[in-house]
Each structure stands twice: as structure tokens, then as C-alpha cells.
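fyi for ur records
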Amino acid sequence: MLFVDKEHIKDTLRDYCVQEGFALVVNRSKELRYTTVCADERCRWRIHAARLADGHTWAIKTMKQKHNCDLNLVTNPTVNCEWAARKLLEDIRANVDIRGKTMNDLLWDRYGVRMATSTLYKMKDKAIKSSKGVMMIPTQIYQPTFKGLIDGCRGLVGVDGTHLKGNFGEILLSAVSLDGNNEIFPVVVAVVDYENKTSWSWFFHHLKAALTASGRSDWTIMSDRQKGIDPSLDQVWPKVPRRYCARHLCENFKTDYPGVLMHKLFWSVVKSCSQWTKWKFDPTLCNDEVTNNFVESFNSTIGVRRIAMVRHATRQHLSQQWVEPCICPNIREGEIFDKRV
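which gave:
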């Protein structure tokens, strides 16, 4: 029996071990020779292969085919992530949300083996990355969301990244705006491998295309001082106005100005409502937010798709019960409070 190279014979032996229900141990692995034996020390099964004179092809020289051990390994140590990813690759491609139990059932039905659930999800991650390279799920923006953003939201868009809790890790990049009632309005989300200049540039490219497609231009991007955001905006969207989260700026000040006094003075200035302190705020934006909390509160919810859908449905239902359609409740209550003060 001939093989293309050494890796070919190793893969074939692994398939054979799974098929027959035993594990093997590599006894000798050199440039010209490859010898394996059964993992059961009582068994005399052995196979020896060598490279032929052409320098590439391998062939089995000797093989003791008879086993005198129990050929019934359900959890076979020969079954690793690479092997399982190769066998279940098409199933994972067809359904990236496939559950661990389903994958285990497929392995059992086809090959008579099982794997630990945690190992299965690691294997699934490897299969996805091997088939797609860098995993970047296209930006999700739907027509009703886009229409609500353009017609009913302020021009302030906060962006932030957060780690996803799960077997795959990954980073969730999100853009969130505020509607006419000063409540959270999710705009776009994306999942990337790393939070760096490359991923942020890709994200801002799609965000810019979506926001500017309507012809509306009064957009302002708010962010923390996360590495990669400013260089990406300089490259992709250099003319867009920017704001920085005051809470993150305050954290940066603590390094050079420790103590409570600096903290109190900083927030006294930030929260001041005089015309002088806010003269630089864009009047067309109609928003004086100084922190990125509304984006981070959105990121704190892991079930992004479900949360966004429930939020939109709830807001629509409540808005239909408003008595005064011209002024939103939160804005009206804020005006009443300002008059009392």
C-alpha cells in the first residue's frame, strides 16, 4: 500500500484506528521510517512503514494484523480536534450554530466514538477558522432599523468593543445611537477575531457606507481611547466629528493626578450646563452626552439579537401610547425638571 507522504500515512492510520476501535502508540518516527504499535501492551499488533527511493512516497513494509486486545474504545485518544474537524467540516459549514450534543451524535453514528463537550466546541472553532480564515461576520443592519435610525435618531453614534463569553472567544464590535427619547437604539454589530486597527477599519468602512448612504451627514462618533479606533477613523472616515468618553478620560488622568480632588473637579466641569462650557457642542446634533455608557450597557447583554428585537418591539408598543406625539416623554420630563430648578 502506497502513500503520498508521511502525513498521508498518519491520517490513514488514525482513520483505521477509529474504524477498528483501538488506539496506537508511535514507537519510532524518523525521516525514513515510521513504526506504530497498539496502545494495549498485551497486544502484538504492529505496523512498519518506510519512505521509498523517490524521496516522497511511503509504503507499508510489515504489518501484524491480528489484535488480541479489546477493540471497543468509545472515547478513543486517537480522536483529536484536527481529525474531528476534518470529518465534521461540512456539517459545521451547513450550520455554524450546531450544538455539541448534535456533533457527538454524528460522531457516534458514523464512527462509533464520542468526545468531551468542551473539546467539541474547540474543534468547532478550529473548523470555522480553517474554512473561513479570519472570522468576520458581515455587519448586520436591517431595513426597519436603518429607517428608524435615519428618521428618528440623533446623529451621535457610540462605538465600543467587548469580549464575548463562550467557547469561541471573539470580539463584539457594536455601534449604538440614541433615539428621540434618549434611549438606546442599536445600529450595527460585528464579530471579529481581534480588536485592532484592521478590524476597526473594516467595521468603520461598513458603518460609514450604511450611515452616509441616506445623504444624512450630521454624524458624530463617540468612543473611548481604545487602541486602533482613532487610526482607523483617520484612515476610513477622517472628516467625521468625534467625541471621547469623559469617564475614560478621567481614568487616564488618575495616573498623573491621583486623589479625590481631581476626580471631583473633572466631573464638576464635565457636568456643567452653562453656555460657556458647551459652546463647542454641535447644535445640529442636539445631544450633550459625555460618556459612552449607553454603548457599554448594550454590550453587557450577551443575547444581542434577541435583546435588540425585544427592545425595538417594546419601544414601538410604548410609543403608540404617547399622548403628545411631538415631544417624547423623557425629553418632556427633562424640560419640566429644568424649569423647576
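The chain has three domains: 1-76, 79-133, 143-340. thats all i got for now
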